[in-house]
Amino acid sequence: MSEARMALTLGPVLFHWPVKDFVDFYARVADEAPVDRVCLGTVVCSKRQPFRDEIILDTADRLQRGGKDVVYSTLALPTNKREIRAIGEMVEAGFQIEANDIATVHLLDGRPHVVGPFLNIYNEDTLALHRSLGATRVCLPPELPLASIRILATGDDAVEVFAFGRAPLALSARCYHARADGVSKDSCHFVCERDADGLNVLTTDGTPIFAVNGVQTLGFVVTAATREVADLKQAGVASLRLSPHSCDMVKVATVFRDLADAHITADEANDLLAVLSLPGPLSDGYLRGLPGARLLDEVD
Amino acid sequence: MTAARAWNGPELVCPAGTPAGLRTAVDAGAHSVYCGFRDETNARNFPGLNFDRAELREGVAYAHQKGVKVLVALNTFMRAGEVDIWKRGVDDAVEAGADALILADVALVAYARKAHPKQRLHLSVQAAAATPEAIAFYRDRFGVARVVLPRVLTVEEIARLTANAAPCETEVFVFGGLCVMAEGRCMLSSYATGKSPNMTGVCSPPSHVTYREEGDALIASVGGFTVERFERDEPAGYPTLCKGRFQANGAVSHLFEDPVSLNAVELLPRLVDIGVTAFKIEGRQRGRAYVAAVVRAFRRAIDSMAAGGKVDVEELRTLTEGQRDTTGAYKKAWR
Amino acid sequence: MRGTIPLVLSRAASVLPLLPLELVSRRLLANAMAARPSFAARLGEHAGRTFAIDPLDCPFAFLITPGGDGVHVRVVRDLSEAAYDARIAAPLIVLCGMIDGTYDGDALFFSRDLRIEGDTGAVLALRNAIENAELDPSSVLGLPKPVHRPFNRATEFLFGQLRRALHAPEPSGGKAYLP
């Protein structure tokens, strides 16, 4: 049982934030956030990429000067030649890549890389296989329960767990933001920029259920593995992934840092998170082996 | 396979939900049938469906006797600590004489290749291989012989993938339920119910589906979330989460997908032209009468094309769910 | 609903005693189970559930528990006092058509000719088990093998006439047991 320090990874921003917000966000992260690794890059929609590319190298530089390790996250569902070529170019240029699709793993051809929460790594054999293909850190799919995570982390020191943020649930070729606005993906006018944490989706009787972010569907609730951090640490999980939202992510990172170091309790952590402007209530359903929509402390 | 297949045209791959369903599909003109074991190793793990080991052996014998191939689906993702369940499934399917295994978990593909070097392996749509590079990953490392393409592609993309995948073949869905999310990577179901197609082999599982009558209307819920409401004269349907009605931006709509199903019969000649090897009919959970009707119609269409004739589009229209059909993502306007 | 027996006939039937019906049903069900021994295995965990089969146009309903130690059938006048896990309701001729494969259960449900309530998983298990059982009228009635073909053909003809007379839904497709 490892008692080593659990690291914190700031996942890639999944949403289409305006460039200025990005720059400000990462400036703060570089200076103030107690995270070890930061993921940069366009994961959801390649149409957003040109906006990011402008500032990505400067941002990476800023983060590295702030002592953060930088990883370049790639598309979770690349479909065309142009998208694959862009990934290939990044691989060739020698950047530290986060693979979110098997095509990227193929392009990496054995080079060391990290794996994001979009590859289907549910068991020890598949984890070992990806490790043998060069993965130095693997973020598990958010739907995995603690019981499975324990088995995976016990045999391997490169496991990362999705610990904060709306859980990414699905990807499509169709853009739901555009569809909800009555336009098509090709002429979308970037309506997704309106919703910094995703566009809320409710059932017909008003119960919040999902959030859409371009081609991506996320859960409405906000995953928060506060109650499970101690167990995860004991199981040998190497790092926790915090997925950025419009709330104060420096505070979120600080909460998880203190929790991981056992300076605060899970209850205290939950209280601190609850006062932030989160897009939904806190949940740990998946980790408890329950439906992902189950809130913290909610029984099935 | 005992009997040689004289047919050189596209292979019609048909669903076999039960032993009786297998015989129905075979008798109706399938070139090959696909089925699974009665457990979580395949993505149609519905109550009362699928085969035990003995039934699979009998099914293979029946199919082979009529010159029809049997493909066994073990296309869910192995659970941590219990990978042996899937590996035993692979071994037993091979022993039963399966012509090919349809797999999704890369570690299971690796196991199957290593333990059974001569066994033909197909890549399930659950592996979501949507690019030449993704297909190449499985083809080059594990000798996968065929890949089932995701339903979210356009015909142009299918053409490109088919050309690039060679010598690996491609198989394309042409009829039945439509999956709008990248297959094998969708957790909508586990969000609402705790059960997902990836881990448990079920999507919007019946154990978590309730129907409730409210006056003349029928309300369908999944995991406690209201997903659909069928008014008095509206046809009812199964409340798959992504086909439900939801509110966004203040408006109610079928946000993710309308409750239509795939019917690509009018695209068959085009798909043949671009070199697609096999046409897949979705529907292991459908009844024998439905399967027989669909298989017969598609077999007629394929035979007609081979003889240089035209394809009759009308007869399949009534069989689609909700009585509305679509060519899905195959035509780009869908996005 | 389509296929409903005229009210005057169902009212007339309400004076009939239920016990003979129960005995006959038990026999039919035992025959059906014998025709396909894997039926109970296929039901799995749902074998011990109680299904209410409710012919909406008849003054009685069946409560069936297929698994465990033999098949239990009870016939009741109405379901309001009964305990069951799932209920399947439709006009009688539609229910009969589901058992012999004339109708596809899914199609009937989609077209609102069939109603289900309660444990959806149990209903699905039952439907899949019945689908696989390939029941035909001769097996269910326990008739000797040589008469199966002619008897099934005759029954098919009669049922067809009855369906038309009652304006029942059209059959879903071919039957596996008819050549």
Question: How does this structure look, described?
Answer:
The complex is a heterotrimer of chains A (300), B (335) and C (179). By secondary structure, chain A is of the alpha/beta class. In chain A, strands 1-2-3-4-5-6-7-11 form an eight-stranded parallel beta barrel, surrounded by five helices. In chain A, strand 2, helix 2 and strand 3 form a beta-alpha-beta unit. The radius of gyration of chain A is 18 Å and the shape is globular. Chain B is of the alpha/beta class. Chain B folds into two domains: 243 residues, Aldolase class I (TIM Barrel, Alpha-Beta Barrel); 66 residues, no CATH class. Helices cover 30% and strands 20% of the residues of chain B. Chain B has an eight-stranded parallel beta barrel, surrounded by seven helices. Chain B has a three-stranded antiparallel β-sheet with strand order 8-9-10, with no helix packed on it. Chain B has a two-stranded antiparallel ribbon with strand order 11-12. In chain B, 64% of the residues are buried. The N terminus of chain B is likely disordered. With 179 residues, chain C is of the alpha+beta class. Chain C has a five-stranded mixed β-sheet. The C terminus of chain C is likely disordered. Chains in contact: A-B, B-C. At the A-B interface, helix 4, helix 5, helix 6, strand 7 and helix 7 of A face helix 4, helix 5, helix 7, strand 10 and strand 11 of B. Strand 8 of chain A pairs antiparallel with strand 11 of chain B.
Topology of helices and strands:
The complex is a heterotrimer of chains A (300), B (335) and C (179).
Chain A: E1 7-10, H1 19-32, E2 37-40, H2 49-65, E3 69-73, H3 81-92, E4 97-99, H4 102-108, E5 113-115, H5 124-132, E6 135-139, H6 146-154, E7 159-171, H7 176-181, E8 199-203, E9 208-213, E10 216-224, H8 229-235, E11 239-242, H9 249-260, H10 266-274, E12 282-283
Parallel strand pairs in A: 1-2, 1-11, 2-3, 3-4, 4-5, 5-6, 6-7, 7-11, 10-12
Antiparallel strand pairs in A: 7-10, 8-9, 9-10
Chain B: E1 11-15, H1 19-28, E2 32-35, H2 53-65, E3 69-74, H3 83-95, E4 100-103, H4 106-115, E5 121-123, H5 132-142, E6 146-148, H6 155-165, E7 169-176, H7 188-193, E8 209-214, E9 217-222, E10 225-230, E11 246-248, E12 251-253, E13 261-263, H8 268-273, E14 278-281, H9 288-306, E15 325-326
Parallel strand pairs in B: 1-2, 1-14, 2-3, 3-4, 4-5, 5-6, 6-7, 7-14, 13-15
Antiparallel strand pairs in B: 7-13, 8-9, 9-10, 11-12
Chain C: H1 7-13, H2 19-35, H3 39-43, E1 51-55, E2 61-65, E3 72-76, E4 86-90, H4 92-99, H5 105-110, E5 115-118, H6 120-133, H7 137-141, H8 148-165
Parallel strand pairs in C: 1-4
Antiparallel strand pairs in C: 1-2, 2-3, 4-5
